Amino acid sequence: MSDTRISEHAFLSDGHTSALVTLQGSVDWLCMPRFDSPAVFARLLDADAGYLLLRPTDMNAVAARRYLPQSLVLETVWTCTTGTLVVRDCLALGRHERGHDLGQTSPGVLLRHARCESGAVEIIVEWAPRPEFGLIHPRMTTTSGGVMARGGATTLHLSTDLPMTIAGMPTTLPSRVAPGSAEARATLGQGAQLGLAMQQAPAWGADLKAWSARRIAQTVDDTDAAWRSWSDLHQSYRGPLERLVHRSGLVLQGLTYAPSGAIVAAATTSLPEGIGTARTWDYRYTWVRDANLTLRGLWVAACPDEAARFFAFFARAAATQLERGQPLQIMFGVGGERDLSERELPHLHGWRGSAPVRVGNGAWTQRQQDVYGALLDAAYQLRPYLNDLEEPTRTLLVAAVETAAATWQEPDQGIWEVRGPAARYVHSALMCWIALDRGILLATELRATDRAARWTTIRDRIKAAVLTEGWNEEVGAFTQRFGGEALDAATLLVATSGLLPADDARIRGTIDAVAAGLSDERGLVLRYRGGDGLEGAEGSFLLCTFWLAEALAVTDRVAEAEVVLRRAAGYASDLGLLAEEVDAVTGELMGNFPQAFSHLGLVLAAHALAEAIKRSESRSR
To answer: Which domain holds residue 225?
Structure first.
């Protein structure tokens, strides 16, 4: 099983898929050709599930890593007793791609480039591809430009100038690798370079062509330039945690599937929410609510192209669901696929033995009422760029308002996708209120002014229900369920919804109750307390802690907001990456990684704090 800390992984993306690279120089996670494709490297989840290693043979070498500025190109500097080695890793972007075109023509190639900066450094390369989550140990052959691996429906090629030794071939050197693997060692003198390029193709297609070392080096540089061009268009934020906000923006863009505009919740599957628990889910899909909020996190108010693509994706994926009286599906594959049936992979042991490893996500069949508010809120946030709505998008948005109006009183599984009986959640009703409220505000753009009066009546009815049945006077807060007493961090969103003025005592009461009742010993916020139908405890939820910071900021509790924000942000890795949760005992990052919701929460909380500081300074003048 893998024991590498989740926080020790770096994240690479080409707008089609992603890879994770350990601090020890091993690519331990890579799905090809898409985020949700079967993994080629999955040592993240099992020791025998594939990897690509490039590092000095000196096991005492010290690694220092960073992302290149405004980029997702990783640079690792290895300081050895004999010299210094610099390794740059990336998933290649298309040639000369810039700005909003990022990822549209990515070739689907993992690149690793090493250069000896001083002295001489002996390096080792180990390649152990394991297609279909480790089920296939391919047969390998050497080629004029590297090594070919064939097995199952997949052909893989590793381009390299190094003479690779295939496990099982006659050799005078002892092999460290298993059958279906290849390795090489070489010494690089000062100024010497080495390139690796890995590609995948269908087994029955044309043979893959080798990449030259020069092409690898040039493409790494061009990929870096492409990421910087995207950052130049998007990273105008100035305020608290500026570096982490900019890094989060890059991560959110890196989790976006460029061909469709869909945004995956995370790059991985089955990293557990608690060590040794079965809380292992596949997050390599796009959730309606995640994508809505992520657009805000990307500052797309200045990027109409991305806004239009977002709505076009969901309009196409949803098709006629709402018009046929069906609830809107809460999540889709990155290409718009609907059937995300969940299955287990029993041959994988899981990260630190946390099993089962799952592919697919059973929540795709759940009813979740918050999706309608998520869609309409996104549309309202992007209103300046929605003057010429495509007809399928307009139809989808109107149908979403109508569905929220008709079904807001029905029970659902809620934002936390509880795998148990449906209930009437306050957050779900709040989001239905948002769907009606934003629909009314967008009535002209939606060509629905004739519906606005009826929508207003229903909106006011939902608000009255939330304020009476969702508020518990004895608890002094909005609660998880109508008529209930349990707290839920999702009720913090009342503060940013517009349901009540920011200075309303009920908002303050909810903030204080959640902070007191759901915070752990580290001051991080849990989603809720009590049973949820699953065994094993989970960690504190970073998104919820960022929600608390944002709620404090929008209610002008600036000092408290900054403390909470910096506390949560302090759990980011050395590269500024966040998972879903923090383990209550060890303080380690837990859950799928990197997680869009966590990075989104950081961005929005930091922005809210920046705005609160401006208001405070304005009042003091």
So the answer is: 6-229
Whether 266 maps to a domain, the answer reads no
Nearest to 287 by CA among 361, 185, 183: 361
Read off the CATH number of the domain in which 110 is found.
2.70.98.10
* Across 24-33, 168-177, 209-218, 307-316, least confident range: 168-177
Q: Total structural domains in the chain?
A: 1
Measured CA to CA, the distance from residue 577 to residue 566 in angstroms comes to: 14
The one-letter code for the residue type at 32 is M
pLDDT tens figures, 149-196: 999 999 999 999 999 999 866 554 455 667 789 999 999 999 999 999
What is the dihedral sign for C-alpha 391, 397, 399, 402? negative
In a domain, 23, yes or no: yes
Residue pair 349/46 in contact (Cβ under 8 Å)? The answer is yes
Query: CA geometry: angle at 475 spanning 558 and 537, to 5°?
Result: 80
Angle at which helices 370-381 and 391-407 pack, to 10 degrees? 140
Q: Rounded distance, CA 126 to CA 104, Å?
A: 31
C-alpha distances (whole Å) from 319 to each of 287, 313, 334, 378 are 16, 10, 15, 19
pLDDT at 279 over 60: yes
Sole residue written with tokens 């210094």:
84
Closest CA to 432 of 370, 499, 496, 367: 370
Q: Which residues contact 52 (CB under 8 A, 6 or more apart)?
A: 26, 27, 30, 41, 110, 112, 125, 126, 127, 128, 129, 158, 196, 198
Residue 26 lies in a domain: yes
Query: What are 69-124's pLDDT values in tens digits?
Result: 999 999 999 999 999 999 999 999 998 889 888 999 999 999 999 999 999 999 99
Residue appearing with tokens 């506390």: 567
The span from the CA of 100 to the CA of 539, in Å, is 37
Closest CA to 40 of 134, 118, 178: 134
Question: What DSSP line would sit under 11-41, residue for residue?
Answer: EEE-SS-EEEEETTSEEEEEESSSTTSPEEE
Identify the weakest region by mean pLDDT among 269-273, 284-288, 292-296: 292-296
Residue 243 burial (CB count, 10 A): 9
The Cα–Cα gap between 92 and 211 comes to 12
β-bridge mates for residue 87, sequence order:
76, 114
pTM here?
0.94
Token pair for 189: 């003198």
Establish if 327 belongs to a structural domain.
no
- The length of the chain in residues reads 621
Place of tokens 């752990």: 520
Please say whether the beta carbons of 80 and 61 come within 8 A.
yes
Q: Coil, strand or helix: which one is 91?
A: strand
Report the alpha-carbon distance of residue 27 to residue 130 in Å, rounded: 12
User: Cβ(451)–Cβ(443) under 8 Å?
Assistant: yes
The Cα 180–Cα 140 span in angstroms is: 6
pLDDT at 116: 98
How far is residue 597's CA from residue 266's CA, in Å, rounded to a whole number? 8
3-state helix, strand, coil in the chain (%, to 5): 35, 20, 40
- Tell me how crowded residue 456 is: count the other CB atoms within 10 A of its CB: 15
Look up residue 2 and give its two tokens: 């893998």
Q: What is the pLDDT of residues 319-346, one digit of tens each?
A: 888 888 888 898 999 999 999 999 999 9
